[in-house]
Amino acid sequence: DALVAQVLPEPSRAKLGEARTLLRLFHRATDALLESDELDASLARLLDLVFEHLPAERCTALLLDTDSGRLAPRVERYLPGAATTGLPVSRHIAEEALRTRQAVLVG
User: Fold this and answer.
1) Alpha helices (H) in the chain, listed in sequence order
2) Which of 17, 18, 32, 107 meets the CB 3.0–4.6 Å disulfide criterion with 45?
3) Does pLDDT of 68 surpass 50?
4) Please, is 21 exposed, middle or buried when counting C-beta atoms within 10 Å of its C-beta (0-12, 13-18, 19+)?
């Protein structure tokens, strides 16, 4: 790190630090996926990581129900005191997540 600090200007060092943090998070997420053969356990660990690294109050992993074609909650996490009545997701956001096959962060 000392060599990096001498060579890189301050903005580049900050970006490097962010990249390292993101890389560590990806590594932990990969470990979480490989820790268990059970889908629910892997999803639960990923949601735990979300709470560790993002200021989230509620988090839900929605999976496609192949019978109905709709997204259904599989694993949910809530901070103590947060509303636990379910996390509404707009149809447009859900359709976009399905179309792009990408996770969605809703604020």
Assistant:
1) 2-7, 10-35, 39-53, 91-100
2) 32
3) yes
4) exposed
